[in-house]
Design brief:
Elements: E1 26-31, E2 37-38, E3 53-54, E4 61-66, E5 77-78, E6 81-82, E7 91-100, E8 108-115, E9 120-122, E10 126-127, E11 133-143, E12 146-149, E13 165-174, E14 179-188, E15 205-208, E16 214-220, E17 225-226, E18 232-236, E19 239-244, E20 248-252, E21 258-259, E22 262-264, E23 266-275, H1 283-286, E24 291-297, E25 303-305, E26 311-313, E27 318-320, E28 325-327, E29 333-339, E30 345-354
């Protein structure tokens, strides 16, 4: 498991030079549980295998999840309009998806903002509805059609949301057997207290993204984790290599921010780069190169898999998704799950992901 301070530096998402396709109202940013870590890690913790991060101990624990704010891509032009996106915490809505595994216990979460001078501000602690199963907890949501963080005290986020945000994170107390499934936030793009134009922010989504509008994203192999408790791996500047216990690794990919609303995302041209393994056309059959596939997590905590990558670039040493595309629906997390031979280093992942086009609201 990765260890994490309350506000660790989030994964930097490197974006392509695609031109923004519509007027922006809010950035819709999603990050999955593979970006989270327990504040008191245990040697028996299992890294996420593309699914939730789960408290497998018998007592409650706190897990913290930073947002990859670098996913905002609006500093481009469209019809002569120059976007100058704010770097504040003013949000239209924010919520966490959790799963309670213990009857009579509760999952609670709070948000944290760190501003440009290092000051910390917190939102009110919010508790999921009673009972076991999948739940959602709103950290911020529209009040009188204006996005509002919960907590109105002078030392809380709502009072300081116009500050430049160095980091935003959610921290949740998970009872025994509890899981965190993912988190999402709609940050106002340019206008404070942006209006969502709809009352149910969760159901406001596009069926599909614009097929011509793809953003390039990538992640380092250092962000990948082992997936089995007790398994070990070595991280260097080059990436990650499995050492013992299990050779299965999961690499989360922080998607680009959507324009106001999420959509049933299309993922294509995903490549997994590696060193130390074979590039022979028979390497998958004899298990001398990584065997990889897309894996994504839905709102109910279920994981889904794409097909094993069958294409091998023998010059640059990467496994390729191929010419087709994969629809990951309204995912909470997307990444690649790989069986990596011992002695092989997974160095990084690149992909193209769709983004939403038009946008309503102010």
């Amino acid at each position: 498991m990765k260890t994490l301070s309350v506000l660790a530096v989030a994964l930097l998402v490197l974006l392509g030079a695609s031109t923004a396709s519509a007027t922006h109202k809010a950035w819709f940013i999603k990050n999955g549980p593979a970006e989270c870590a327990f504040q008191n890690p245990q040697s028996t913790d299992a890294g996420t295998n593309g699914g939730p991060i789960t408290n497998a101990t018998s007592s409650s624990r706190v897990v913290t999840c930073p947002f990859a704010l670098a996913g905002r891509w609006g500093s481009t032009t469209d019809s002569g309009v120059v976007y100058q996106p704010q770097r504040w915490a003013d949000a239209m809505a924010a919520l966490v998806y959790v799963q309670n595994g213990t009857a009579g216990a509760a999952v609670s979460c709070f948000a944290t903002l760190q501003d440009s001078v290092g000051s910390l501000y917190f939102g009110s602690t919010r508790t999921a509805s009673s009972g076991t199963g999948a739940k959602k907890i709103f950290m911020a949501e529209p009040v009188n059609n204006l996005g509002t963080w919960y907590g109105s005290a002078s030392n809380q986020i709502e009072a300081h949301q116009a500050s430049t945000a160095r980091g935003i994170a959610f921290s949740c107390t998970l009872p025994a057997g509890g899981s965190l499934l993912g988190q999402r936030i709609k940050i106002c793009e340019n206008q404070p207290n942006c209006n969502p134009a709809v009352s149910d922010t969760e159901s406001d989504y596009d069926a599909f993204g614009q097929s011509a509008d793809k953003q390039a994203v990538q992640t380092s192999g250092i962000e990948c984790t082992t997936t089995v408790a007790g398994a070990t791996a070595t991280r260097t500047q080059s990436g990650i290599s499995p050492v013992s216990g299990s050779n299965t690794l999961f690499c989360p990919i922080a998607p680009p921010a959507d324009n106001c609303k999420e959509h049933k995302r299309e993922v294509k041209r995903t490549r997994v780069y590696y060193t130390g393994g074979s590039t022979s056309t028979s390497c998958l059959a004899v298990r001398t190169c990584p065997s990889c596939r897309l894996r994504w997590l839905d709102r109910n905590g279920a994981t889904h898999d794409g097909s094993v990558f069958q294409f091998i670039n023998q010059t640059e040493s990467y496994m390729d998704q191929g010419t087709g595309s994969q629809n990951t629906d309204l995912e909470l997390q997307v990444g690649v799950l790989c069986d990596v031979p011992f002695g092989v280093t997974l160095t990084g992942v690149t992909s193209y992901m769709s983004t939403t086009g038009t946008c309503t609201g102010t």
